[in-house]
């Protein structure tokens, strides 16, 4: 018999205050847990504005404030948390758009660095280049949960 996994996918508007963004995410995780979710998935760059020029300012290492928050929330609510993505700075100073996954014990069970960066240039309309500030990940990531 197949096991059904109850999950919650969250969407949120972020602002420039990382602590406030984490508080919003925390409320969403708590609400999902009350509804019976076993896994909560947060949005891409849930802890800061999605602006390539701001990524270096919001980048943090692992472990760091946002991953500590994710681990604590997963443990507190006894569920798996997929941390959408955060802007991660590695030990060499490279910046990635990374997703961290924590199990119900608050243990890291996966990290994926976005491989296909979003670059677009439509003259007179929009120009956005993640590759101006982010490095591309190089691996496929498989996370086993339960």
UniProtKB/TrEMBL annotation:
Residues 5-146 form the CN hydrolase domain. It comes from the Bacteria. Keywords: Hydrolase. GO terms for molecular function: omega-amidase activity. The keyword Hydrolase applies. One of its GO terms (biological process) is asparagine metabolic process. SUPFAM superfamilies: Carbon-nitrogen hydrolase. PANTHER family: NITRILASE-RELATED, OMEGA-AMIDASE NIT2. This is Carbon-nitrogen hydrolase. It comes from Syntrophomonas wolfei. The lineage of its organism: Bacteria, Bacillati, Bacillota, Clostridia, Eubacteriales.
């Amino acid at each position: 018999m197949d096991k059904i996994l109850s999950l919650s996918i969250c969407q949120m508007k972020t602002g420039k205050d990382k602590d406030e963004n984490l508080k919003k995410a925390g409320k969403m995780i708590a609400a999902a847990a009350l509804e019976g979710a076993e896994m909560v998935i947060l949005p891409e760059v849930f802890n800061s504005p999605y602006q390539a020029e701001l990524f270096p300012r919001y980048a943090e290492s692992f472990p760091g404030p946002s991953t500590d928050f994710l681990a604590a929330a997963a443990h507190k609510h006894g569920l798996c948390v997929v941390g959408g993505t955060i802007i991660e700075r590695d030990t060499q100073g490279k910046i990635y758009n990374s997703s961290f996954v924590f199990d119900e014990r608050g243990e890291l069970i996966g990290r994926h660095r976005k491989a296909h960066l979003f670059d677009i240039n439509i003259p007179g309309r929009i120009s956005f280049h993640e590759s101006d500030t982010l490095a591309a990940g190089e691996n496929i990531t498989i996370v086993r949960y339960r």
